[in-house]
Amino acid sequence: MTAFAYFPWIWKRYMFEETNSFPEKDESEALLRRNSCGDVEDEKRNGSAVRIDIPPLSRTGEEDELGSCKRFPKEKRKTAVAFVFLFCNFILATLSLALTHERLPDRNTSKPLPDIVLDNVNTQDWALDVSEILIIIMTAVTFFIMIFHKHRWIVFRRAFVILGVLYLMRSITMYVTVLPVASYTYYCSPKANYTSFLLIAKRVIQLVSGFGLSINGQQTYCGDYIYSGHTVILVTAYLLIQEYTPKKFYLFHWATWLASLTGIVMVLVARGHYTVDVLIAYYAATRIFWIYHTMAHNPQLKNASTSNFLSRIWWFPIFRYLEGNVGGVLPKVYSCPWMKVHRTRRFD
């Protein structure tokens, strides 16, 4: 009888205690801690199972506010930093043009360079106005789409930093190599034949006040050829529209693509740029945009490693700062920004 008295203890000791890997309730709760946004953080990793909470979906199929806070935080301060980055580089580009104008080759002795496209097209001065009108339209449409996107703060800072990188690169390329004026008829302000702080500051203010456009009469300085700013804006606007609107809006995508292409062609017809300026601008804008969004959509590419060659790009630290907390591809969900109770609509 004594041996049978110990049997329940032996059975519990060897059959349950050694194989039971599930933590008690208190231990399971100790493994998990939530931050202010509701994110689950692992405090202790000892081989036990860790519970991951998946945010529930609403009847429309979109994440609730807690899930949105987890994956796509607004981080307005980062958006402000991205805007300052863009603004500073835009000022730098205008400063570069103000200095380049004084280094411009004399139009009386230096003729336009041979260009396979420009040499076979009849120049039309009005075409530059058409191009800049299309730039204004494309910019307005892009801004409208971004402001009504549910995750507008993320979209805006992506646009700001991409354009900021492109303007920074353009400010360097236009200054290091100055090409002769491509047009025979475009008006260029006379050179001052000297440089001073007040002169350059006056030119920068004039260029900034006109947003770098010629249609308002504020852009009368020449030499900003490599590479085309018109092409950068048109291509980037189209890429943003295509990325942040549903695929089923294909007619809208084709219309914006045609508008961008027309604007680029009009720049060449007006001899506002050499063909090489347009090609370099297209290549730079598309590659920066695609590289940025490839890294943004793949969390493993947000970390620097020996196998991640994209992390060697000079602007990778900026990207990592802006996108470190963004969790994946942004859903195509829209909401009104000035309503207290946001009514969202999903188009995916």
UniProtKB/TrEMBL annotation:
GO CC, any one term: endoplasmic reticulum membrane
Domain Sphingomyelin synthase-like residues, every copy: 222-294
Protein family membership: Belongs to the sphingomyelin synthase family.
Keyword Cytoplasm recorded: no
InterPro entries: Sphingomyelin_synth-like, Sphingomyelin_synth-like_dom
Cellular localisation: Membrane
Keyword Lipid metabolism: yes
TM region(s), chain numbering: 80-99, 126-148, 160-182, 225-245, 251-270
Pfam family membership, one: PAP2_C
Keywords: Lipid metabolism, Membrane, Sphingolipid metabolism, Transferase, Transmembrane, Transmembrane helix
UniProt main location, coarse: membrane
Membrane topology, record value: Multi-pass membrane protein
GO BP annotations, alphabetical order: ceramide biosynthetic process; sphingomyelin biosynthetic process
Name listed for the protein in its UniProt record: Sphingomyelin synthase-like domain-containing protein
GO molecular function: ceramide cholinephosphotransferase activity; sphingomyelin synthase activity
